[in-house]
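Q: Could you fold this chain for me?
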Amino acid sequence: MDADFSHNPRDVPDIVDKINQGYDLVIGSRYVRGGGSTQTLDRKVLSWSANTITRELLGLHTHDTTAGFRCYRRQALESLDLDNIKSSGYSFAFEMLFRVERRGWKVGDVPIIFQDRRMGASKISRSEIVKAARMVLWLVIDTHLRPRSRPCTRS
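A: Sure. Below is the predicted structure, expressed as structure tokens.
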């Protein structure tokens, strides 16, 4: 979760409950019924656009591809080749989601209200946006060049 108070700790029990229901990755989502954001209109548009483009191009099933409020089941993380993660910054969130979904792990959303930060400054910049766009394109290309990973198995 973000440490700038944009994610409310009171949402943690809902996310953990969903993990306990058998999900392997649970995302605190602005884009499901009951979720939302108090951000400025320009940030909402940027965020919604990035999510929509990323979800459509990568074929992701969750609603909030760039959200950082997440809980991963240990086995899901252990099944990924974490040394092969190529991204950092904002694109790390959707690359991880892409890899988890591609492995066949069960992903769910929990509604949250994303608050405007109370402390610190945004790290989003033009260069970060360009880096994220490049990562989406790389993952699209990678999807078509490599066969799907073996589905996960729970123990």
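A (continued): Strands lie at 25-29, 36-37, 70-72, 107-111, 113-114.
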